[in-house]
Amino acid sequence: MDSTGSTLPRITADTALYAEVLDWIHTEAELLDELREREWLETMISRDITYAVPLRQTVERARGRGFSEDTFHLLETYGSLSSRVARNETQYAWAEDPPSRMRHFVTNVRVSATEDADVLQVKSNLLLHRARQDQSVPQLLSGERVDRLRREDGRLMLLRRDVLLDLTVIRTHNLAIFF
Q1: Contact in structure between 124 and 108 (CB atoms under 8 Å)
Q2: Alpha-carbon distance 125 to 77, whole Å?
Q3: Is 1's pLDDT higher than 70?
Q4: Do residues 58 and 166 touch, judged by C-beta distance below 8 A?
Q5: pTM, 2 dp
């Protein structure tokens, strides 16, 4: 068992596999920051994706971390992600037109093997900086991402993402963004 309580074998930073995962993370952040959502969807997202942002509640330590298992801000599949991307490509994406300016800061990357040799678990910390229109105060969203990356046709693809936000109340204009 490692310091995070996981019994999964850790992939260390001095390996080619860790470097491949880190490159995947940097590429994903670049595509999302540059609003290249279609390319992100088609080259990095598995058709079997589950993309979840569970509701967080403030609870006592004895009751766990406070994330709901059945209530979500977002609970997406490939179909719903594809619909969001398609809408953003039209003139009807009013919530994001003009689009927000975003910057994904992804740090503290931890990579572990799983029971499935083709799947890796990747935990990382995320700080999402979002500037909307001419607002002078940016929105900051922080949390932990728990990803499952699966090798498909030789490439790593996002199979599952759980975004564990630090906030219990999200004070943002909309959630028409990708974490």
Answers
A1: yes
A2: 22
A3: no
A4: no
A5: 0.89
Tokens of 60: 């006592």
Question: Do residues 139 and 132 lie in contact, with contact meaning Cβ atoms separated by under 8 Å?
Answer: yes
- Residue 144 φ/ψ region, left for φ over 0, alpha for ψ in the -120 to 50 degree band, beta for the rest: beta
CA distances from 85 to 61, 90, 161 (A): 38, 9, 17
Cβ–Cβ < 8 Å for 43, 36: no
Closest among 45, 56, 33, 66 to 161, alpha carbons compared: 45
Over residues 142-164, the pLDDT tens digits come to: 999 999 999 999 999 999 999 99
Are the beta carbons of 112 and 15 closer than 8 angstroms?
no
